[in-house]
Specification:
It is a single chain. This protein is mostly helical and about 450 residues long. It folds into 3 domains: about 25-215, Alpha Horseshoe (Serine Threonine Protein Phosphatase 5, Tetratricopeptide repeat), CATH 1.25.40.10; about 235-305, Tetratricopeptide repeat domain (Serine Threonine Protein Phosphatase 5, Tetratricopeptide repeat); about 370-460, Serine Threonine Protein Phosphatase 5, Tetratricopeptide repeat (Alpha Horseshoe), CATH 1.25.40. The chain has 27 helices and no strands. Helix 4 (about 70-85) runs antiparallel to helix 5 (about 90-100), helix 5 (about 90-100) runs antiparallel to helix 6 (about 105-115) and helix 17 (about 270-285) packs parallel to helix 19. The longest helix has 17 residues, at about 1-20.
Length: about 450
Amino acid sequence: MRYPLASSAVFLLAACARTPVAALPEIDFSRFQPAVRAVVEKAHTAAKAQPRDASAVERLGMALHAHSQFGPAVECFARASALDPGRFEALYYWGAALAANGDHAAAAAKFRQALAIRSDYPPAGHKLAESLLLSGAIEESGRTYRQLIARDDRDATAHYGLGRTLSGAEAVGSFRRALELFPRYGAAQFALAGWLRRAGDAAGATKVLSAYEKDKLIVPPMSDPLMAAVSEWNASATALLARGRRLEGEGRLKEAAEAHREALRADPGLAQAWINLISLHGRQGEFEQGEEAFRKAVALEPDRGEAYYNYGVLCFGQQKLGEAKKAFERAFALDPNHAEAANNLGALYEREGQLARATGLFRKAVALKPRYPVAHFHLGRLYANQRNYAGAIAELEKSLEPEEPQTPTYLYALAAVHARAGDRLKAVTLMRDARGRASAAGMSELVGSIDRDLRALGAQ
């Protein structure tokens, strides 16, 4: 009877030896801002209460990673992985924390382990390829990028990454493909220009970099729910501000406003949060709160043109046109490169009948921001009313790109100018196109106007 018991004891000791579990990291909470400390302490308390719960330990690692505490985060993810060796998330986060801490060779090893468990998560493949590249394993990085491309040939990030592992014409081809797929990819523009210069094509390099200053921080979007979950732990004021902007972009205005208020609780002196709240409250019809946000913003930073611009939009929404005009004038005086302020100010001068001044402001707006549909539309209308049909057509054609919700209106205006210029066939063709777009967008009033004009042109 003693033999089985002895065997069991040996088995248990061996099992423990195979899965060493590191202790939870020591954390100096005094280095955190109060809002950050509260988040990290809560995660730490939960992990201490359930030290063998891989999920709880992983969440502590996520909270630490979110606040750039990569060393302690690595310890947490290592512990979570030891507690649950088949846990993809722990290995992925472990690799991401190692990479963020600069240990790319070790990060690559963890991403390989993660992909062995779950190969259908492209961000892990991208992170493996990037870590291999940064650790000097160029050939393996290139093979990994090629595997990503084989899975999805429209992956601009993978084509750019592959180009970084190549040279000469092959690199140029990869970077060009990345830019075909995502034209505003700043890093790909810079990389392609570099290889073109080496090949002696200085003119081509200059052309590629023509929009680089505007595009240099733009990268193709990549869905990575796991790292997005890490970001949600970030309670710093800047992260909350970024979260608020993201929510606003998604149309979740109430949640966006709350994220901005959280940012202000973390940093009451964050003027940008008040500036953004002017717009957020205005878009929800909360005009008193918007005005209060404006007063707070200019008290903190009295010379921010953006604050006055947002306040001008708020006033315009209440039909306080005099105050809106003053606000846009102040915004444009503080920031002479503010195309939107120039456009809106032009629209107000046009309402007052000051057409020469309005035209000058619309011209300024499109000079500052060439791809600005509504400013091209306004300028085109003014030219049309002056019987400058060639100028009107040129501006209205520019109003069609990039496409936006009001594009059917701009297209209809272009058609009407062609009709006034005597080109009936072109006018009818464009009106039918505008009608189709307006109908698809549910713009019934615009559809009715187009139908009346088509009848007048004998096209119905």
